[in-house]
Each structure stands twice: as structure tokens, then as C-alpha cells.
């Protein structure tokens, strides 16, 4: 994708602080970090979102997230780690090139990733189980 910023960063055309690189991925520091060490896993091939990602590459991304998370835990001495992966503007996606956020968490930090829990009614539960499972 010629006008995709993450294609340009992943391909090395635009510089970014790179924590790791291999033939499939580049892992960079986020320019607007939620916390110290916030990083992004970018595939070098353009896929807009989770739905477009080939399963094999997605598996590699998950393995890399684990490896990066372990390295960041040691290096940054963070107390926790959130993996965040947004799909669609409604979900907060702003760059439409698949990426996984690695967000180190520190005790009592003020990073806001939470939600207010609702209620799962019996009727909704039964309908949701039927609706989703019938599409698999
Ligand atoms: P999204 O909201 O799409 O899940 O996340 C996009 C992320 O990319 C944001 O956290 C934003 O700070 C980061 N970002 C956007 N443009 C750039 C850039 O040019 N360089 C880097 N390193 N991060 C970027
Ligand atoms: Zn792209």
C-alpha cells in the first residue's frame, strides 16, 4: 500500500525506533505511548486488520508478542502487560495496517484501558451463543 504509513515504517522507508526486526515483522516504539515502552508489532506485508491476516502470520505475531513481552518485562521491570489490537474505527483503530500494541503496565499507572461492566441477561446470553456459534 503506497500511502500507508506503517508499510513505510515496516519497510524501513520512514525511520522508527526499532526494537526488533525479522523477515516478517518490525517492532517499533509507539510515537504516542500510553506508557513507558509502549511498542507496536507491524507485519511487513500490508493487511488492514485481523480479518485480513493470514492465520500462519497471525500465529507468528502471537509468538513474537510473547517473546517481546518477556524481553520487555525483564528490561523495563514492568508489573504487567496489555496486548491491544484494534479493528475498525469503532474499536479505536486509527492506522489501517494490522498492528498489535504491547503496553507495559506499572503498578498504579493511570493508563485507561478499562470499561464499565454491564450485565449479561439470560436472554442475551442464549441469543449470543446461538448467533456467534452458528457462524463458526
Ligand atoms: P491504533 O489506534 O490504530 O490501534 O494505533 C495506532 C498507533 O500508532 C497509535 O498508538 C499511534 O500513537 C501510533 N502511531 C501513529 N503514527 C505513528 C508513527 O508515525 N510512528 C509511530 N512510531 N507510531 C505511530
Ligand atoms: Zn500498510
From TrEMBL:
Annotated catalytic residues: 99 (tele-amp-histidine intermediate)
CDD domains in alphabetical order: HINT_subgroup
Protein name: HIT family protein
Ranges for domain HIT: 5-112
BP terms from Gene Ontology: nucleotide metabolic process
Domain of life where this protein originates: Bacteria
Gene Ontology terms, MF aspect: catalytic activity
Pfam families listed in its UniProt record: HIT
Motif Histidine triad motif: positions: 97-101
